[in-house]
Amino acid sequence: MRVLAAMSGGVDSAVAAARAVDAGHDVTGVHLALSKNPQSFRSGARGCCSREDAHDARRAADRLGIPFYVWDLSDRFAADVVDDFVAEYAAGRTPNPCLRCNEKIKFSAVLERGLALGFDAVCTGHYARRVGDELHRAVDDAKDQSYVLGVLTAHQVAHSWFPLGGSTKTEVRAEAAARGLSVAAKPDSHDICFIPDGDTAGFLDARLGTRPGSIVDVDGTAVGEHDGTHHFTVGQRRGLRLGVPAADGKPRFVLDVTPVTGTVTVGPREALAVTRIAGVRPTWTGTTPAGPWRGLVQVRAHGAPVPATIEVRASAADGDELVVDTDEPLSGVAPGQAVVCYDGTRVVGSATIASTVAAPRPALVP
Fold it and tell me: Catalytic center at which residues (predicted)?
């Protein structure tokens, strides 16, 4: 089998490529250049698109004795990931750029080009498993990345390979060291790769400017001001700078972000609880589920899955809608995030959260 190994310059993708070689496949390594002006070096564990990362990927490929290429996908990354990220925040939603990158770049642009060049599959260092034609969680719950792969289609799953799905991170690092790979002890990348300094607010300010507005309590009382709704996400507690303390003295959290009026609504933690999630643009890793079904849902990359009743409903205006009723309330669920559905360990599909319904509040006892 001809395998295209996506090599980020980190330890996971290097070991994944090595295992593909060991399996006897014809492997070619490819590093994705996603930034027009990449930094020379990473800032610790921040980012993953520096020149240093490209050099590390090349050294790993040389060690494995496989061909290596760099593909410039910076224009498509800017349009499909970075511009989408900015537009979503401008609209009051909270996007997940890693999930969007998997959807639009790693398993769309790369796979499309790979198949056109005669490759059979794309191999990555994601912690997930492919069992037959099904996508499943990784064995290591602490490293499981199936959530950010929930956007894959059945076609993409069928042409993907995740060699690390049955291993732990400790095992992968030990294997890299034993193979003599220089990235064995390299820190994992985290945060948003195109904001290597971690200043998301500053990044958005530079693109959206200052848009002053009011912060109001649930009863509409003004309790503060802000410089832009893009500084806030549902569930946020820190950085609110409220001028009027809550009557009960407890912390307040962002409950709603409305860019049209420039209003950010805050309230008590219990007001964040929701039991119904409506998602748009659902994608399925296999066949579309029929009728309401019982499963598990997850709304954050490392969040705990919760039991739920899940249903796909047809909508003439916007296509299918995914409706999820959870058995227990979830907190801080923000529009723009993904809800990923599971049947046990199997990833069924995902949708982009459009709206939520608050959990019933307990009646006050007179």
Answer: 101 (nucleophile), 193 (cysteine persulfide intermediate)
In the predicted model, is pLDDT for residue 262 greater than 60? yes
CB of 300 within 8 A of CB of 257? no
Q: Which residues of 67-80 are buried (b: 16+ CB within 10 A; e: fewer)?
A: ebeebebbeebeeb
Residue 219 annotated as lining a ligand binding site: no
Q: Which two tokens stand for residue 203?
A: 């990044």
Q: Give CA 150 to chain center in angstroms.
A: 9
DSSP state letter for 359: P
Strand ranges inside the chain, DSSP E: 2-6, 26-33, 68-72, 121-123, 128-131, 134-137, 160-161, 213-216, 222-226, 253-258, 263-267, 274-284, 293-298, 306-313, 321-330, 338-343, 346-358
Q: Which two tokens stand for residue 10?
A: 């980190």
Query: Left if phi > 0, otherwise alpha if psi is -120 to 50, otherwise beta: which for 274?
Result: beta
80 is in an annotated binding site: no
Region 47-55: what's the mean pLDDT?
Answer: 76
Q: Is 6 annotated as a binding residue?
A: yes
365 vs 16, higher pLDDT: 16
| Residue in 75, 52, 60 with CA at minimum distance from that of residue 15 | 60
7 annotated ligand-binding residue: yes
Task: Judge whether 193 counts as a catalytic residue.
Answer: yes
Query: Is the model's pTM score more than 0.85?
Result: yes
Which residues, including other chains, have CB under 8 Å from residue 219's CB and lie 6 or more apart? none
pLDDT at position 76, please? 93
The domains found in the chain, sorted by start residue, are 2-178 (3.40.50.620), 210-268 (2.30.30.280), 273-358 (2.40.30.10)
User: Is 48 noted as a catalytic residue in this protein?
Assistant: no
12 labeled binding residue: yes
Enter the tokens of residue 228: 């832009």
Q: Is 9 one of the annotated binding-site residues?
A: yes
Residue 336 Cα distances to 84, 150, 206, 333, angstroms: 11, 15, 21, 9
Catalytic residue among 48, 49, 193, 341: 193
Lowest mean pLDDT: which of 41-55, 139-153, 190-204, 341-355? Answer: 41-55
Q: End-to-end CA distance of the chain: give it in Å, rounded.
A: 71
